[in-house]
Amino acid sequence: MNLTENIKEGLRSIQGNLLRTILTALIITIGITALVGILTAIEGIRAQVDSSFSSLGANSFTLEGTRWWRRQNAGRNEKIYPPLEYREAKKFMEEYTFSPTVTVNTMVSGNVEAKYLSKKTNPNSRLMGGNNQYIAIKGYKLSSGREFSNPEMKYAGLVAIIGSEVQSTLFDKVDPLGKEVVVKGLRFKVIGVLEKAGGMFGGGGADRTILVPLETARKVPTSFDLTYDITVSVPKVEDLDEAIGEATGLMRAIRHDRPGQPESFEIESSGSLREELDGITGALKIGGGVIGFVTLLGAAICLMNIMMVSVTERTREIGIRKALGATPLRIRQQFLIEAIVICQLGGIAGVLLGILVGNGMSSLLGANNFVVPWFWMILGLIVCVTVGLIAGYYPAYRASKLDPIESLRYE
């Protein structure tokens, strides 16, 4: 028997035991779906985050007050310093000379409700104070309308630029420009609408934002003192470290941080966020690999058991083949081909399901792009071949060593 005939015979054997083949391939499918699905979801989320970073720009950083939850999550028992005040932010803008692109923003509330006539949003919109540079640095774009004018920013004009989700909820097909929305008891005239941006993990991002001039935000009644963040953008990425160094020294002087003492503020940049993301995605990939490995291990044991049963059922057939001149090598090839084909059937189905499941998971978490992970697809199919070889070798070896005379006597 040649190799081609062995392949045909292996396929005929699989067709003859179709139910058993489907059940075995299904176990392989589950393992590959778990492996490819988790890794596809991670790749989808990573692609969305990379897209957000590229729109934000890798050449920007933000100075902000210490966040207590970050200190606790990092296992540090450091002092929580007062937030950045408006006068400190203004002084920084006046004295920072490394880059002219500096903006100050503040979040008045992360759970406001906006109203227009009888319609209102869910109480999960963000009321932000900022300026036109804030829009540019954050990578936001206007789908309609205009930015704030200088008098509006200087004299606290009651105007607002709203996100796409706020616009669709309040105005539907009505043009929002020139209309007034009520937020925290104040009437704001809508002068612009931001393009739909999406947001990771259901946060909404710019889509749920209501942006007003910074001076206006300072006059909105709140039950707490506002904290201000400073965002700086430099022309070149390679200048980022030098810009951060100068910003750190200037802010330490403004905040009166003593020499040798830690900063009373924090600096976040795209680079540090990417490092955190790499650590998270790396751990998730390891977890996904372990889940897929355990599932495939069970599938390999099941496949080996089924192939052993197949060898026992076909003992007389093996004896006839050997009596007709089949070599042990051809016998091994036949059973190995059967095992590999079963694994490949399950692997192909698992890869397709894994892509769909993975992209579905990433879309639920806020990603809006469809990812085809070619590397993980190829790796999954290679793993299937490996599983087929490992699970099928011993049964194939045992079949090739059967004595033809004893095999012909087997009942």
Automatic annotation (TrEMBL):
Residue intervals of the MacB-like periplasmic core domain: 21-247
Keyword Transmembrane helix found: yes
Subcellular location(s) of the protein: Cell membrane
Its membrane topology: Multi-pass membrane protein
Organism lineage string: Bacteria, Pseudomonadati, Bacteroidota, Cytophagia, Cytophagales
Membrane-crossing segments per the record: 21-42, 290-312, 335-358, 370-394
Family: Belongs to the ABC-4 integral membrane protein family.
Name of the protein in its database record: ABC transporter permease
